[in-house]
């Protein structure tokens, strides 16, 4: 398959060996580019010559588009052709395979042999699963498992066609255990730019298992902050599309993200992995589209400000009880019972008699609706029944011996209209409002009537799942809206009912659901354990994975964050990768000068990093600090609930909107007992805030430090900060 060598080849200097190999590979890629380039030019000229394309020409154009795509991939490969090498001797083979692994597979133009193996190919799995514990290894191939021995695992950094680094993490017969993570640490220590990036060169074994999990599984990932959940889910999509090209397509996949800004933040990973056309959306945007914008969504900012504002936990909880109720599976069950009853009672209790002597008995209409059309969704059953009633009337009119046929038809049509109007409203909104009014503790008053003519009713986010459920029972699923695979990020903030609804649109159950219960800060709408989701999938069709290592932050930051959630035993602590950095700095500042000190600190942090964030508890505070930055001439971006783009640089953000993002350095302000009391919500907010930082974390407080920061720790660190 790839280049092979016999066992006894003399050891070479790794750098020189890789330099030679790179030179060969780049020369071969350029040769291929030249051939493809000439061919492309020819096809482009042909296309211009004739505008009306025949079927053959369309087929040619498709081939030409594929060729152009290949050309683009080859051009990318000249910059970074591969990132790793694995030497593997399969049992029974006489020669070792040298597999060079890259983002895209490339063949040698002279021999047509694989020169670079795509990272998603079965054999490439070895590069990730092999951790150097003994040299035995195996991977799953389409022909069954292939066992053998690993001789070398090497990380190679090529940038813009230049060899920059070679690190061997395993060499057969040598003790390389100490260097195993060197390459990963080197990658993690880099400053990040403003977007999430791919991790193909350093995917870890436990992440690889998730990426390559069976396509028919609903994969549920509980992963601590920074464990790579989002990144892994995006890589899984690229993997599924590569492995199951015939059965899955990008335009039938979707990523559900918590907000539009997060969609922007992750938008570059898939194109980097060579994948385009996957829908990236929020549950609300998707739901409103499926509902054909029958309703609008109330601006969520008010609720966010209220929930994360400073008030007693008890008071907060009571106001949000109906949100919790509307997201529960018991709500789905009550709604299903309501719809069953509606189905039973919706047929008008009347025969249809369009003119004297002709009557269509109720029993016939009922039989059509309940039996003949029972396999259609409700709305279609109603439409079919009414169309049949109309047809029956038209036949009756034709057969009638009435002399004034026109008058008879007019009268009959009026009767038909009146009959049609006897049927109740079959829209999600009408049914949902009736349902709410029938439920103790709920009511349709929560749905806001339009303020002016032509405007729509407005609902809250938690109303969308029940409305979609009704829509599904009324209309079924339009095949264009059916998913092959769905990714749900920050799933701890999804309700069980939302997952149930999404399942209707993804009948294969092929889903990747990821989140972290320690970060569930929207507790009024989310879940407290994963059983609420797992139980929705049949046994054997769901896989639960746990990611406990945090790759994002330094050892010191993770230790600090863990201490905050330690008293709350139900939360999982993150295990740090041993990447040591600066101590976390906890600093008391004067109330009077807190804004100036924060601005100074931000500027200082920004001198050493490309992305920096000042994190506040409330949105109001974020406005105040942002204003202070601008007054001081510091170019900072305020991120509020309406933001749809992430700019990088300096951001000022309430913590609840920073979830999912990361920054080289973070300054948490106002970490006092008034802003962060001993409640679990405060602990989770602080935990989320701390774990946004990759390299540096600073904490400012005035007056009394939040009791969530252990005092001994704070004293020590205050001392350290001087
Ligand atoms: N195997 C890896 N190699 C290199 N970097 C990694 C690896 N896994 C994760 N990372 C990095 O760790 C950071 C966190 O990843 P990601 O945002 O996907 O984590 P997450 O679990 O979704 O975090 P959160 O729950 O905080 O949103 C990113 O910078 C990502 O590139």
UniProtKB/TrEMBL annotation:
Residues binding ATP are 223-230
Any idea where the UvrD-like helicase ATP-binding domain is?
A: 202-554
Any coiled-coil regions, as ranges = none
Amino acid composition bias (Basic and acidic residues), ranges on this chain: 10-21
**What residue spans carry the region label Disordered?**
1-21
Keyword Cell division among record annotations:
no
Q: Does the keyword tRNA-binding apply?
A: no
Q: Which key words are in the record?
A: ATP-binding, Helicase, Hydrolase, Nucleotide-binding
Q: Which Pfam families match?
A: AAA_19 (PF13245), UvrD_C_2 (PF13538)
The source's superkingdom equals Bacteria
> What is the protein named?
AAA family ATPase
Q: Which organism does this sequence originate in?
A: Alicyclobacillus fastidiosus
